[in-house]
Amino acid sequence: MKKQKVLYGLPEEVKFCSRCVISNQRPSSVVEFKNDPKAEKPTIMFDDEGVCSACRYAEIKENIDWDQREKQLIELCDKHRKSDGQYDCIVPGSGGKDSAFTAHILRYKYGMNPLTVTWAPHKYTQIGWDNFQNWIHSGLDNMLYTPNGRVHRLLTRLAFEVLVHPFQPFIIGQRLIGPRFSVLYDIPLVFYGENQAEYGNNIEENEKPTMDMSFFHESRLEVMDLVLGGVKVRDLIEKHGIELRDLTPYLPLDGERLKKTGTEVHYLGYYLRWDPQECYYYAAENTGFQANTERTEGSYSKYSSIDDKIDPLHYYTTLIKFGIGRATYDAAQEIRNGKITREEGVALVKRYDTEFPVKFFKEIIDYMGISEEKFWDVIDSARSPHLWLKDNDGTWQLRHQVE
């Protein structure tokens, strides 16, 4: 049988976890400033029994002494807690279930005074804006940071055209905003929710409570060689009319300033057992978080990543590049957390994973400034031949599906 061409450095043989529904094509969730769109590497590992690293970590979580971990959290909070009314920690987030849980429980159970900071979505959904407002009105201070609209639209379009990853500039900004505000306001302690290693990155990353700070300030490249949206900063300036000052929100921070502030980025999920569904229940009860009235396109869920109109398109691009759509991500973690069975997960993936996100499609391609024809040219050129087959009638089909 003729071998099919493989893009993005993916494994040639497609395998599915024997416990959940994720495949070995799952890409890295690490955002770098030197991204090669043809050389993305998967990070999820499968053992000899065909079980993925995320499922193995779910086993490890069963044996963690969570009471001891909570004591460590209390000690950390005691170390940083202010008694003069000043903010003592930063919590980045949108007011979705995870950040709503993180900020609220830190303030109202552990006595912290968090400043919540939000990197604005590309285009708010109504439910996203309502939940954001409810989050603030539940008793939290917030600063909404909205980047230069012209620049962000350009970077989003380039990221789609070059990387088929329209979410990349948003992810960079969102990842940097916590440490950035830490330096600006001299607040050393930053809390994010869960470590992405929960979902398949290197298991060893879960063994420490803090994020690697090198992402925020170090680079082997000069600033002009940093890559944003798949394009070097030099080319953004010379070919796209961008000034260096326009890119400030996306650039690594000054390492000396971070060191002087003593910035530490901690995962709350290291200290408290992380369960997305339980975060939802807590947020609904304590911050007024509301699930959507309809399921999200490409999945069956109603309460995860619902604040940005570009979200469905982002997950559609992961389906195109890696054969992994939104239903796969949702079902995989719900299986690991014991909310559904693998059989139920397989059925949900087969039903919803390849669904095209119609609802906000026209609005988002208008936002990026591309035509529908251009959109499909980019999408179809991004399909790795080892994952996709084109039928005689011109219809694209996945070669491999979870069973």
Automatic annotation (TrEMBL):
InterPro entries according to UniProt: N-acetyl_sugar_amidoTrfase
Q: Which domain of life is it from?
A: Bacteria
Name of protein: LPS biosynthesis protein PseA
The record lists the organism as: Desulfomarina profundi
